[in-house]
Every structure is written in structure tokens, then in C-alpha cells.
């Protein structure tokens, strides 16, 4: 629960002094944090500040600066996913043949301490001016292979509804653009910004999706859920992306609570991102093998609706790939070996649609050959009770 002894801030906290006065960091920490503040922007809107119990809780960690941000490790880079090299004109990133990113501004409602664009975003990062925005839109008009435009930034929901409407109308008028995606943290960070005017601005004949960035169940407050609902009632599908973060969502319990809270808000978890190696973010890093174990712990425990794709953006701009966990262990001819959510191996006869569990082995890991198929089976062997989970409809 939030610390009720601390007054709720009435305005966005932007300076170290603000953080001290709000009781989120100590006076003694101020000089070291001023060094961090010279490098990276800070903003914590009241709705988000209210959720913080202390600087190192899962909410505080995400937004309160820390001296560790000045420690840059060897693998960290200022542009971890290679946006700059893939930018043909300011405001556009073109990584995949049929999609492009449009970044109309670099301002965010809050500044995540792990942000992959932390070297670029901030209140001084500004907004594309009219001429620059038109050049970016012209680039999209001139590229008919682009079917999907992803509004990113910064946070596009920091635009005024008027400017958002202008962009949506311009994209809608491009015959080749059929899908618009909006990546935003606003619904959880500053939910009151999702006004009826903003939702009306999103009304389009294109297939428009809002992708909310949320990392902890506590971010799904009643106000956040209401802001999401304002979009859903206008038939705007809302899905979610999250970043796997040490100290925030790196336990099965925290991850499960987040995924369940999203589904309860009618939001499909879309991506769980492996943290990008942005400068000064190593305190948040969870190794991929640990991320796979975390997700494996949830397999079979949470509904498939809640299951995100765990992805890595290959550093250097080589694209995003799913990174597991994998359940397919071997495939040869018509025989495939898989593991079930409990980790037990099974040999699947494709075409025959038979799935038989492996009989506990004699002290070594089974190989594909070790796992019996139906033809290996003693015909007199009783099949035993049917597993109720395997009858009826696929859940
Ligand atoms: S809202 Fe997005 S772009 Fe802005 S700081 Fe957070 S992760 Fe970065």
C-alpha cells in the first residue's frame, strides 16, 4: 500500500528537489542524483507517484533516478536497437518491409529508468515541427509497401488531441496504410490524459490498436482501467507490452499478477521484452535463461490469453525474435518430442494424433528414441483413467 504519511503530489515531479520534497529520496542522496539528472530526464505524474511506497519498490524503481545509471557496462550502447541507422528522415524508423515507426515527439508522461531510447527522450527532445512532421508523412506516402504505421516516441498520447487527429487522418488517407498501432504508457502513467477528445481523435477506418506499456499489476489502478475502458467502448482494441525487469516483475508471482491484471482489464498481453542494453540499465537486467524459467513456471498456470510472447530485440537493429521457453525438443519424420508444462517429455506421432507420456527413465534424460510411441505399447496394457484435461474442448 502507498505510504499514507506522504502527501500525494499535485503536479508531475521533475527535479531531484521535487523528489526530496515528495519524500521519495533523502536529502543526502540529492548530490549524486543531480549528476544522474544532468544525463537523463525525470518525470513522475501524480497518479504514478501515488503508487510508490518507497524508492526501491516495483513502482519506484521504474521511475526514480539512481546513481547506478551512471555505470555503463561494456555491452550497453546509446542506440541499442539501431533506430538511428534505420531512420531515412527525422521521425521515421524503417526496420521491416511492411511497417514503419513514426515518432512525432520524444516527450513521455514519465521517464522509465530502463528506457531503450533514454538517450533521446526527454522534455527537451521536443515534437516534430509542422514541416518535419509533413516530411515524415511524405516519406510514408511515398512508400506503398508500408501497410502498418506504429506511432511511438516518446509517447504519442502526449500529443494534443488535435495533433493526434491530424496524424491519424493523414495516415488514414494513405491508401496503402491499413493498420495503425499506438505505443503508450499514458493510460497507466497519467490516465486522465485519455480524454474523450483523445479517444475521438483515434476514430479511424484503419485497424487501430493501442499497445499499453505496463510492468507491474499495481499500475492497473481503477483510474488506469477506466482510461483503457474509454478506448475499449469505442471499439479500440488494447493490448499490452511489458519489459522483464529485476525487482519489478522478475518473480512468477509478480509476473502472474501483472498478466492476470491485464487480462482482467480486457487487455491481451502481447510482448514481454527482454531488456535492451541501454546505458546504465544493468541493475534491471534478468538473464534470458531466467526469463524462460519464469515463463515456464506460468505455463499451464495462467490462461493462454495471458501468455505474452517473450521477445528479444537483437542489438544493432536486426529485429525482434521470440526467445522461448521452447517446448519442442526434437522432430524427425512423423515423430516429434515435446515437454508438457510440468517438464515431462512426450512423443507425438503426427498424423496419428497420438500423444503418449514418457515412462520414467532409468537415470538419464530420454532421447527421441527412448520415448515410447503407440506402436511400442503393449496392446494388453490398460490405458488407465482418461486424463480429464485431455478430453473435451481445448481450453
Ligand atoms: S514511456 Fe516509453 S519511451 Fe518513454 S521513457 Fe518509458 S519506455 Fe521510454
TrEMBL record:
The modification N6-(pyridoxal phosphate)lysine is found at residue 320. Residues 339-395 are annotated as: Disordered. GO terms for molecular function: 4 iron, 4 sulfur cluster binding; L-lysine 2,3-aminomutase activity; metal ion binding. It holds the Pfam family Radical_SAM. Its EC number is 5.4.3.2. Residues 341-350, 375-395 have a biased composition (Basic and acidic residues). Its cofactor is pyridoxal 5'-phosphate; [4Fe-4S] cluster. Residues 94-306 form the Radical SAM core domain. Transmembrane segments: none annotated. InterPro entries: Aldolase_TIM, LAM_C_dom, Lys_aminomutase-rel, Lys_aminomutase/Glu_NH3_mut, rSAM, rSAM_sf. CDD domains: Radical_SAM (cd01335). Gene3D superfamilies: Aldolase class I. [4Fe-4S] cluster binds at residues 108, 112, 115. Keywords: 4Fe-4S, Iron, Iron-sulfur, Isomerase, Metal-binding, Pyridoxal phosphate, S-adenosyl-L-methionine. The keyword Isomerase applies. Belongs to the radical SAM superfamily. KamA family. This is L-lysine 2,3-aminomutase. It comes from Novacetimonas maltaceti. The lineage of its organism: Bacteria, Pseudomonadati, Pseudomonadota, Alphaproteobacteria, Acetobacterales.
